[in-house]
Design a protein that fits this description.
By secondary structure, the protein is mainly α. The protein is built from 4 helices and no strands. Helix 3 packs antiparallel against helix 4.
């Protein structure tokens, strides 16, 4: 601690350097404090869970649970591609709403150009939805 005090006193003559150094030191100290606190809390939670948590080392514990019914055969079964296609379509239209929110916040600032750009964006999405609908991607078979 004495070394740090001497370090700061060397900059006392030039107050601008002292303030900059003090500001950096305070930010660095805050960072170290947050990291140490986070590490301590995670380690304490892990330790408490290990100390007071129940311990059961039965063979049944390692088996997958399927509604109380023992599994037969392999768990690796083929899944229809329709599920993946439906998930991708959902993500595509879900991400659309993420892009609509920032546009709604700044629409007054940009005026007619904002309306034209979002109109084109929505037109492309509607055409994509129409294409997926026409190809039967939204139907469960």
């Amino acid at each position: 601690m004495q070394c740090i005090f001497i370090f700061f006193c060397t900059f006392a003559a030039n107050s601008e350097n002292f303030v900059i150094t003090l500001y950096f030191f305070m930010n660095f100290t805050l960072l170290i404090t947050v990291l140490l606190t986070a590490f301590t809390l995670v380690a304490a939670a892990y330790l408490v869970a290990k100390l007071i948590g129940p311990r059961s080392y039965a063979k049944v514990k390692g088996e997958p649970y399927e509604s109380g019914i023992p599994t037969r055969g392999t768990s690796w079964i083929p899944v229809s591609i329709g599920f993946y296609l439906f998930a991708i379509l959902f993500l595509m239209f879900d991400v659309e709403t993420v892009f609509l929110y920032p546009w709604a916040v700044v629409v007054k600032d940009f005026g007619a150009m904002a309306l034209l750009s979002i109109g084109f964006f929505l037109l492309v999405l509607v055409l994509g939805l129409a294409y997926a609908w026409r190809k039967g991607a939204l139907e469960w078979k």
